[in-house]
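quick one before i forget lol
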Amino acid sequence: MKHTKQNHSVPAQPQLFGLIWRPFKFPFRLRAGDVIQYENRLCRVIRVTECAAVVIMNRPARVFKTLFEKPVRIQPAPKIIRICSDSQVPILNRKAR
């Protein structure tokens, strides 16, 4: 009868504790795509991170006349603003759930 060596020792395995599953809650007040009112103007939230929310604000068009009395209208580029991601600004387009 041939004896085989059996390894009866169980390798040390880390004990796994039960995972706690919590429903995902968005940690910030603002979300990308929100329309907010900031400095009495409408703005759109583009991106939200831990440190800031990036907001784009349209500037008013400038209208003036040239030397030849021809009216000219120039639309400046939008202004990029960084505000706190938990700012207490009015959100205008958020639907209540």
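fyi The CA atoms of residues 65 and 71 lie 4 Å apart.
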